[in-house]
Automatic annotation (TrEMBL), chain A:
This protein's name: Beta-adaptin-like protein
Membrane topology designation: Peripheral membrane protein
Native organism: Gossypium australe
Compartmental location: Cytoplasmic vesicle, Clathrin-coated vesicle membrane; Golgi apparatus, trans-Golgi network
Gene3D superfamilies assigned: 2.60.40.1150, Leucine-rich Repeat Variant (1.25.10.10), TATA-Binding Protein (3.30.310.10)
Composition bias, Low complexity: 611-634
Description of how the protein assembles with itself and partners: Adaptor protein complexes are heterotetramers composed of two large adaptins (beta-type subunit and alpha-type or delta-type or epsilon-type or gamma-type subunit), a medium adaptin (mu-type subunit) and a small adaptin (sigma-type subunit).
TrEMBL record, chain B:
Taxon lineage: Eukaryota, Viridiplantae, Streptophyta, Embryophyta, Tracheophyta
UniProt superkingdom: Eukaryota
Positions of the MHD domain: 143-403
Membrane topology: Peripheral membrane protein
A GO cellular component annotation in the UniProt record: clathrin adaptor complex
Subcellular location: Cell membrane; Membrane, Coated pit
The organism of origin for this protein: Gossypium australe
Protein's name according to its UniProt entry: AP-2 complex subunit mu
Main location as per UniProt: membrane
Single Gene Ontology BP annotation: intracellular protein transport
InterPro entries hit by this protein: Adaptor_comp_med_subunit (IPR050431), AP2_Mu_C_sf (IPR036168), AP2_Mu_N (IPR043532), Clathrin_mu (IPR001392), Clathrin_mu_CS (IPR018240), Longin-like_dom_sf (IPR011012), MHD (IPR028565), Mu2_C (IPR043512)
Annotated keywords: Cell membrane, Coated pit, Endocytosis, Membrane, Protein transport, Transport
Family, as annotated: Belongs to the adaptor complexes medium subunit family.
Length: 902, 404
């Protein structure tokens, strides 16, 4: 049976949407069905077909199950963006949930659970309640899962309506599939809730173990996963449970097997009888091995888990090392994991075989794999004392192949072997020294230098060897420099002759004077002082006996291991990290944003923003934007409390850079609209300054107006800007003529960007200092309005707009409402925004609201994608923006507010 | 969907969406872009099938020219997710008639959406309401038939010196049932545990004949595992139609169907002499089909000349191998290939050639490398009809590698 659905993907020449609309309203059933398929096809490839919402929903009332399913699929996708229209579908949902066909009943409930629109959720409760008690197990099963979804949307509602109790009742259901799904739902709810919701009691345990035998494979996984959290009261109970679970090890489904293993391992902790434990270990081995004949991805999951299991119970697979030998065509991720387990299972008994394998791998093609194989040989040497010699001889054989990266890797591990077995294998140093020239990786170089320094007294030409490295000392990476420093000191202490003495001076000089690496410098100074005050003490320190190392790489801490073992088969066991290290899901994370009804707190937050802005914008922008961002995104940006620049700086600045202050002795124009007064005459001893940033002909200017209300003539005006978020600075001298008493002058000061940037999150504060020859320096604050930076090239093509919008993660979307702003005429607003280089992209109707899309760009290529939602003529504008640089959002909102108010 | 997944995507190799199904809206709609940017367009592709990007984890599998990507934001069961994908793909294949690729998906997207809604059991919608989850009641067949296929793959890794490094057989029993009513089936094999149990029960010595020891057995969900554990019998109510009844693994006493004896001599820098002898060690009346032996040669191979005593051989530059094909390979014979390979001399190549293993493909009908035999298959149904049973055996090469 093969379909021919691909025809639905082919588009007709023009006007696809109207054509679809027509077909959706056709009187012929087949045509309607085809049209819905086309809509779904378009939706799949990412086209926006939300405008067909009403037409698609109209097709919902049909007896045809296939068509119904498609319409429901559409609803799930678009209900969120059309919440008001989605309500239209509610009636059909409610009706379908009472349909005589159980499949339709289940479908209706399942779909409603997938739609996260508050209004729909309200209507969902009654049908859900009915379906939880439905006669048909398939409907009950579906309803159980739906409760978990509803809990995610509205936990309170679930608790209020008693759905949790209904779920718990379903655990005693006579259909095992219903039981399994109820358990899955409860487990999921528990995961998202802090309180105890689902605790497994002994009667529950018995019920679930019975259901285990009868339900499908996925149901078995649910039950086993839930039961693995059960703590048996004593060894006997644990043994009983394990006995019921062990048959699952024979299941064909790898997920069932892994979950059964998890459960057994958990209970084994309680079992005291060594016979039982040994027997269980024996039983678990074959199924674990069998997992390695599954698909490579499943093998990978199994191997990551086996890695954990052998750390806790090495006996299980002690005799199975052969199955972890790499196949030539294994994917690299499988090979790497197999190597890790081979190291863990290597023992005196099998080491010869293992070494042969490692040697084989060391000649393969993949560089990373080869390196890991070489390192594995070293780790085995460190782990197995009796095999160390054989390991070293294999390493020496590999060095003889003279493949560069093999040699380097071998030297790194041999250094560790020297540490582990001091005074045993130094005879091979001569061989190592032969490859000295080929070393080019820092770690290998550092290892070799360590070896030379450590065994300086046995290497006749140690000084020559070290000297050859010293030539390039300044260029070496820090790791190598540190090692060179220590090795030279060791050499000097061991052979205090003339040559080393000279060397040490060179090194100490290089490491103290000619470096800016604090680690290196500090170490060098310590050596220097030690050597100059008490060389004997230096010997005791530098040549002290080193503690013997052991191979503990990749060994997990015991408590972490416990936690990971309790999470076998899950992501946690694959990452080898506890779940809370990577699950960032916050329950209330995503909802609300698309809904119109904001919590009341929003208003106050908004006015706070305003007052912040009124305070000269000196407060960090995060105060207003972060609550928004945090409410929307599970992973909020850290609320950076970065302090704004301190005004004190200004005095320094003026004092230091006085010569940079530009003389103002040229005439200036005086026309244009009034500028905001920044320095009132009252605080400026009669000098009043008004100023504003403006954009003209693609350039940014600081438009300034000076009014002299003093009794004397003021001249010699100069201006200076403090560091600011955009690095705004004067591009030329301030040109203001001498001002007679009562006179005023206006000037345009060209500005440049990115001159003196301040650090920290961007803010709108612009601190300005102005002086003249007669008065002290005046400081005042101005606010940078982002829209002056909007460049003329900010226009985007529709397609690239859509692409950019999609490519930016949701965390980069920031939303703000302006309840007080009214857009009276769309055209006028568009013109006005266009004048500020905010370019109109598209417009669409959404219910009674108009949604406009714009793009804008600020220098250095930061684009803003803007969505404005409003009802023309009514107060309230919602603005959502997406930008690669969401820190800019508050600044942007201030700018747009100014623009819209103007 | 048995996993708490947030979304599942089917993408083609360019990253275009073929299917997307959102289950929860806690992940953004731009997850595909994240996958494309951070996995598909980087070297990371293929280095690990489970990745974390931001707050979400991605599990992905490539099947022919399609990526199936599951996105989760919780600590989901990964084993379950991958198994789900594997099962779903198998199901799609059975619906699409074999192929699972971009075209098949485009041609059947409506069906896929429908199947993704439900757990992946064929005809799930028809069966879920019954008491036995996998079988519908009231089936009637005019002729009641059961087909058993025992399919084994032999995995071998042999050292260049001819010693077996690793060898195992993974087998599966595929069953096709066309049976009326609710039949109870019982399968008997010549494995040790089963036979011992039987002889205990009937208190008589086991019948003569070879018994084999299974390392591990796994069963389809229809098999009563508790009963297998206690009584060691494989009893089940089968699903209708085709399914995989059981899988097993054997490492002891494997009959290798072929022995490969390679000698490869490098004569100076530019010449190589390759001699390979392949010996079939199964019965003389049987024969293998589709035998392919791939003998790797260095990249800088310039010219090859062959002599084969059976089949055909050629040099395939795209995989750097001499490929020797023998369509029909009788038992107890030993054809040989001798080839001369001329190489382009390269001075730069300091590293000696790392010899990949010789690989072999084959199928041997009516032969089991494990020695497994079906001893009986009993069918009980309350109406007491007669059943016809058909049994076939075949052994294929898994990864059959000989280092040289």
């Amino acid at each position: 049976m093969s379909g021919h659905d691909s025809k639905y993907f082919s588009t007709t020449k023009k006007g696809e949407i109207p054509e679809l609309k027509e077909e959706l309203n056709s009187q012929y059933k087949d045509k309607r069905k085809d049209a819905v398929k086309k809509v779904i096809a378009a939706m799949t490839v990412g086209k926006d077909v939300s405008s067909l919402f009403t037409d698609v929903v109209n097709c919902m009332q049909t007896e045809n199950l296939e068509l119904k399913k498609l319409v429901y699929l559409y609803l799930i996708n678009y209900a969120k963006s059309q919440p008001d229209l989605a309500i239209l579908a509610v009636n059909t949902f409610v009706k379908d949930s009472q349909d005589p066909n159980p499949l339709i009943r289940a479908l209706a409930v399942r779909t409603m659970g997938c739609i996260r629109v508050d209004k729909i959720t309200e209507y969902l409760c009654d049908p859900l309640q009915r379906c939880l008690k439905d006669d048909d197990p398939y409907v009950r099963k579906t309803a159980a899962i739906c409760v978990a979804k509803l809990y995610d949307i509205n936990a309170e509602l679930v608790e209020d309506r008693g759905f949790l109790d209904s779920l718990k009742d379903l655990i005693s259901d006579n259909n095992p599939m219903v039981v399994a799904n109820a358990v899955a739902a409860l487990a999921e709810i528990q995961e998202n809730s802090s309180g105890p919701i689902f605790e497994i009691t002994t009667p529950t345990l018995t019920k679930l173990l019975t259901a285990l035998n009868e339900c499908t494979e996925w149901g078995q996984v649910f039950i086993l996963d839930a039961l693995s959290r059960y703590k048996a009261s004593d060894a006997r109970e644990a043994e009983n449970i394990v006995e019921r679970v062990t048959p699952r090890l024979q299941h064909a489904n790898c997920a069932v097997v892994l979950s059964a293993v998890k459960m057994i391992l958990q209970q084994m902790e309680l079992i005291t009888s060594t016979d039982v434990v040994r027997n269980l270990c024996k039983k678990m081995a074959p199924p674990l091995v069998t997992l390695l004949s599954a698909e490579p991805e499943i093998q990978y999951v199994a191997l990551r888990n086996i890695n954990l299991i052998v750390q806790r119970r090495p006996t299980i697979l002690a005799h199975e090392i052969k199955v972890f030998f790499c196949k030539y065509n294994d994917p690299i991720y499988v090979k790497m994991e197999k190597l890790e387990i081979m190291i863990k299972l290597a023992s005196d008994r099998n080491i010869d075989q293992v070494l042969l394998e490692f040697k084989e791998y060391a000649t393969e093609v993949d560089v990373d794999f080869v390196r890991k194989a070489v390192r594995a040989i070293g780790r085995c040497a460190i782990k197995l004392e009796r095999a160390a010699e054989r390991c070293i001889s294999v390493l020496l054989e590999l060095i003889k192949i003279k493949v560069n990266y093999v040699v380097q890797e071998a030297i790194i591990v041999i250094k560790d072997i020297f540490r582990r077995y001091p005074n045993t294998y130094e005879s091979i140093i001569a061989t190592l020294c032969e490859s000295l020239d080929t070393l080019d990786e820092p770690e290998a170089k550092a290892s070799m230098i360590w070896i030379i320094g450590e065994y300086a007294e046995r290497i006749d030409n140690a000084d020559e060897l070290l000297e050859s490295f010293l030539e390039s000392f300044p260029e070496e990476p820090p790791q190598v420099q540190l090692q060179l420093l220590t090795a030279t000191v060791k050499l000097f202490l061991k052979k205090p002759t003339e040559g080393p003495q000279q060397m040490i001076q060179v090194v100490l000089n290089n490491a103290t004077v000619e470096t800016d690496n604090p680690d290196l410098r500090d170490r060098a100074y310590i050596y220097w002082r030690l050597l100059s005050t008490d060389p004997e003490a230096a010997k005791d320190v530098v040549l002290a006996e080193k503690p013997v190392i052991s191979d503990d790489s990749n060994q997990l801490d015991s408590t972490l291991l416990d936690e990971l073992l309790a999470n076998i088969a899950t992501l946690s066991s694959v990452y080898h990290k506890p779940p809370d290290a990577f699950v960032t899901r916050a329950k209330t994370a995503t909802q609300k944003t698309e809904d119109d009804d904001y919590p009341d707190g929003n208003e106050t937050r908004y006015s706070e923003t305003l007052s912040n802005a009124a305070n000269g914008g000196a407060s960090p922008p995060s105060s207003s934007s972060v609550p928004h961002a945090a409410a929307r995104q599970p992973a909020p940006a850290p609320a950076a409390p970065a302090p704004a620049a301190v005004p004190d700086l200004l005095s320094d600045l003026i004092g230091l850079d006085n010569n940079q202050i530009v003389p103002a002795d040229q005439p200036a124009t005086s026309s244009g609209p009034p500028l905001p007064i920044l320095l009132p005459a009252g605080s400026g001893q009669g000098l009043q300054i008004s100023a504003q940033l403006v954009r003209q002909d693609g350039q940014i200017f600081y438009s300034l107006q000076f009014e002299n209300n003093t009794q004397i003539t003021l001249d010699g005006f100069m201006i200076q800007f403090n560091k600011n978020s955009f690095g705004l600075a004067a591009a030329g001298p301030l040109q203001v003529p001498p001002l007679a008493p009562g006179a005023s002058a206006r000037t345009l000061l060209p500005m440049v960007l990115f001159q003196n940037m301040s650090t920290g999150p961007p803010n709108t504060l612009l601190q300005v200092a102005v002086k003249n020859s007669q008065q002290p320096v005046w400081y005042f604050n101005d606010k940078i309005l982002l829209h002056v930076f909007f460049t003329e090239d900010g226009r985007m093509e529709r397609t690239s707009f859509l692409e950019t919008w999609r490519s930016l993660p949701d965390s980069n979307e920031v939303l703000k409402e302006f309840p007080g702003i009214v857009v009276t005429s769309a055209e006028a607003t568009l013109d006005q925004l266009a004048a500020s280089n905010m370019f109109f992209i598209a417009k669409r109707k959404h219910a009674n609201q108009d949604v406009f899309y714009f793009s804008a760009k600020i220098p250095r290529g930061t684009p803003f994608l803007i969505e404005l939602t409003t009802i023309i003529g009514n107060p309230g504008v919602k603005c959502a923006i997406k930008t690669p640089n969401p820190e800019m959002a508050p600044l942007f909102f201030e700018a747009i507010e100014t623009l819209l108010k103007a | 969907m048995p996993v708490a997944a947030s979304a599942i995507y089917f993408l083609n190799l360019r990253g275009d969406v073929l299917i997307n199904r959102l289950y929860r809206d806690d992940v953004g709609g731009n997850m595909v872009d994240a996958f494309r940017m951070h996995i598909m367009q980087t070297k990371e592709l293929g280095t690990c099938p489970v990745r974390q990007i931001g707050g979400c984890s991605f599990f992905y599998m490539r099947i022919s020219n399609v990526y199936i990507v599951i996105v989760v934001s919780s600590n989901a069961n990964v084993a379950c997710a991958f198994k789900f994908v594997v099962e779903a793909v198998a199901l799609f294949k059975s619906y699409f008639g074999g192929a699972f690729d971009e075209d098949a998906i485009r041609n059947n997207f409506v069906l896929i959406y429908e199947l993704l809604d439900d757990k992946p059991v064929p005809n799930a919608t028809l069966q879920v309401t019954g008491a036995v989850g996998w079988r519908r009641e009231g089936l009637v067949y005019k002729k009641n038939e059961v087909f058993l296929d025992i399919v084994e793959s032999v995995n071998l890794l042999m050292s260049s010196k001819g010693s077996v490094l690793r060898c195992d057989v993974t087998g599966k029993i595929l069953m096709k049932c066309f049976l009326s009513g609710m039949p109870d089936l019982k399968l008997g094999l010549n494995d040790k545990i089963g036979l011992e149990k039987e002889s205990q029960l009937k208190s008589r010595p086991p019948k003569s004949g070879k018994t084999i020891e299974l390392d591990d057995v796994t069963f389809h969900q229809c098999v009563n595992l508790t009963r297998f554990n206690s009584e060691k019998t494989v009893s089940f109510v089968p699903p209708d139609g085709e399914f995989e009844l059981m899988k097993y693994r054997i490492t002891e006493g494997v009959n290798l169907p072929f022995r490969v004896l390679p000698t490869i001599k490098e004569l100076g820098r530019t010449r190589m002499e390759v001699n390979v002898k392949v010996k079939s060690v199964f019965g003389a009346k049987m024969f293998a089909l589709g035998v392919v032996i791939k003998i790797p040669v260095p990249k800088q191979t310039a010219k090859t000349s062959f002599q084969v005593t059976s089949g055909r051989a050629k040099y395939q530059a795209s995989i750097d191998c001499l490929v020797w094909k023998i369509r029909k390979f009788p038992g107890q014979t030993e054809p040989t290939l001798s080839a001369e390979v001329e190489l382009i001399s390269t001075m730069a190549e300091k590293k000696s050639w790392t010899r990949p293993p010789i690989q072999m493909e084959f199928q041997v009908p009516m032969f089991t490398a494990s020695g497994l035999r079906v001893r009986f298959l009993k069918v009980w149904e309350k109406s007491g009809y007669n059943t016809v049973e058909w049994v076939r055996y075949i052994t294929k090469a898994g990864s059959y590698e000989i280092r040289c």
